[in-house]
């Protein structure tokens, strides 16, 4: 086993009919993973689509092999599939398609062992403190160090030279629940975390694993400082630094060489461009362009925020 080998799928495709207790199978087929229509990259993915734009994304994504939708949308979807020549696509439908999707997602984890695709193994020169906890389903490269009290969860890939500081938690579940009527459904995490070469996750930082069978990704030569929290499905580009106490919510995309100051909070699904800078304590709820410099609560372009602050202080 070579720790740095490319990841492999963990499940063989499963017939859609095996999940007929959750949804009606309108068109037969198979799937072995779940994911968002536009982001899915694992072959054999089931996606949920409740609007036409998501149906279009799912049909266009070659990684998607099954779509679950509502009875009202299913006939049009079948027409779109035929027009696109996607003979491989299965179709399921349910009155509450989102609930059925997440019930299938949970069943893939609990009944079939769905998890992030990797080649399990730990390089022999890895340094692991005796008090650290490392799940067996991980892929760890050469010259990695894992400090006292750290935890490396299922589905984690640590590339060469990564350092995990004391008490850091990598590959843990994040908060994700959905309320359907009076029912609060806890949605389990199937994905993992991949941390690029020479990156550091320092004391007490938390990096959540992805919700679906993909990865929360931290690039090469990054620093995740003490107490920072990285949500599920986040992507961080090479050379970026997230300083102490930063909170980044799920599926945010952070570019290369970004600096985020202490205590900043980044809203979920936010896009932050390359070489951007986020000042101390900022709350970012809108996209940040490449080389943008943001400050304030809520964060604004820095020059505008300083003008507003100057006006306030002059009163």
Automatic annotation (TrEMBL):
<dbReference type="Pfam" id="PF00132">
    <property type="entry name" value="Hexapep"/>
</dbReference>
<keyword id="KW-0677">Repeat</keyword>
<dbReference type="GO" id="GO:0016746">
    <property type="term" value="F:acyltransferase activity"/>
</dbReference>
<dbReference type="InterPro" id="IPR018357">
    <property type="entry name" value="Hexapep_transf_CS"/>
</dbReference>
<dbReference type="InterPro" id="IPR011004">
    <property type="entry name" value="Trimer_LpxA-like_sf"/>
</dbReference>
<dbReference type="InterPro" id="IPR050179">
    <property type="entry name" value="Trans_hexapeptide_repeat"/>
</dbReference>
<protein>
    <recommendedName>
        <fullName>UDP-3-O-[3-hydroxymyristoyl] glucosamine N-acyltransferase</fullName>
    </recommendedName>
</protein>
<keyword id="KW-0614">Plasmid</keyword>
<keyword id="KW-0808">Transferase</keyword>
<dbReference type="InterPro" id="IPR001451">
    <property type="entry name" value="Hexapep"/>
</dbReference>
<comment type="similarity">
    <text>Belongs to the transferase hexapeptide repeat family.</text>
</comment>
<keyword id="KW-0012">Acyltransferase</keyword>
